[in-house]
Amino acid sequence: MKTSASQKSAQSWDQGLPEQVCFRVTRHCNARCRFCLAPPDGAHPETGTLLHRIDWLLARGVTIFHISGGEPTIHPGLAALIEHIYAQGGKPRLTTNAIAIPDTLLPVLRTTGTLVKVSLHGDQAHHNQMVGVRSFEHTQRNIRRLVEAGVQTSIQTMVTADADWVVDWVADFCLTLGVRRLSILPFIPRGSGVDCKDEFGLSPEQRRSLRAHVKEKRHKLNGRLDIRWLDFNARPIHVVEADGSVVLEAATNAMDKVLGSIPVSECMTTIINSIRDKNEFG
Ligand code: SF4
After folding, report:
1. Would you call the peptide bond into 70 cis, given omega within 30 degrees of 0 as the criterion?
2. Which of 36, 60, 85, 154 has the most crowded Cβ, counting Cβ within 10 A?
3. How far is the CA of 119 from the centre of ligand 1 (A)?
4. Quick one: pLDDT band at residue 161, thresholds 50, 70, 90?
């Protein structure tokens, strides 16, 4: 039997998935960052749906799952998802604003060796302004809890125009708390960030200067703190969206490429059909 062109392309997009993906478990969030790369869009899949997507991705060679959102800690199935990835031989990673870390999550993060990256953007006033809610105290306290619980914890910091002082502030904060890795993200105009690019966007000169500052700091703190430059402009990233679509995310939304969608499991299809039948005939 011959394969049509559309069948070929439908077959091919999921053959070349990379070893690691960004895996969004929700688009709900308890913060309101003005620069948010993935602002709320209403998508909040059930745990069963997410478990199916994990299995589907594992079967295609994905092993490292960078769990993100929205804010993943507000998904009630987060611990189960992490345990499932680990039990199936995958490697869970978690990016969180750490506003709320349930007690029950800490041992799961530790025993599964999950690397946790917490977003912290500067001192109290600056951080609260950046995330749009008064969360600094919660985030700071939860970073301490993570470190004390033996969870491998790093910090990531978004740096906007004229705010490169936060590099020094957050580096000191890491050293004080015993955090060993810091990722510096220069602002990029994606998601909600498109609306504030005139205010937050770095000029080429500011970007060069910030990069040089980070390099100098990295050199100075070598052996005590691993400071990284994390530039989303550098190369496209495979993102599994909360609605199940798989997107190759580039520097801007306009450059993104939707590769396809993870099919709904047969089990889920049966459930959906039975709900439809009930609605239509019951
Ligand atoms: S950047 Fe993260 S913490 Fe901030 S609103 Fe977006 S999803 Fe929430």
Report:
1. yes
2. 85
3. 9
4. very high
Site to probe by mutation for ligand 1, drawn from 29, 136, 190 as the one with most ligand atoms within 8 Å of Cβ, is 29
Determine how β-strand 237-240 pairs with β-strand 245-249.
Answer: antiparallel
Domains of the chain: 16-281 (3.20.20.70)
**How high is the pLDDT of residue 282?**
38
Q: How does pLDDT run across 110-135, given as a tens digit for each residue?
A: 999 999 999 999 999 999 999 999 99
Q: Whose CA is nearest to atom 1 of ligand 1?
A: 36
Could you give the CA distance from residue 215 to residue 197 in angstroms, rounded to a whole number? Answer: 25
Going by alpha carbons, the residue nearest to atom 4 of ligand 1 is 33
Ligand 1 atom, smallest distance to 39 CA: 6
143 token code pair? 């970073």
User: How many whole angstroms from 157 Cα to the centroid of ligand 1?
Assistant: 12
User: Which of 27, 33, 35, 139 best tests ligand 1's pocket when mutated (most atoms within 8 Å of CB)?
Assistant: 33
Q: How far, in Å, is the centroid of ligand 1 from the Cα of 127?
A: 12
Average pLDDT, the chain: 91
Any atom of ligand 1 within 6 Å of the Cβ of 215: no
Q: Find the helix or strand (DSSP H, E) in which 50 lies.
A: helix 47-58
89 C-alpha to ligand 1 centroid (Å)? 29
Average of pLDDT values for 244-258?
A: 91
Binned at pLDDT 50, 70 and 90, residue 232 comes out as confident
Q: Are 226 and 181 in contact (CB under 8 A)?
A: yes
Average pLDDT over residues 130-154: 98
How would you class 203 by CB atoms within 10 Å of its CB: exposed for 0-12, middle for 13-18, buried for 19 or more? exposed
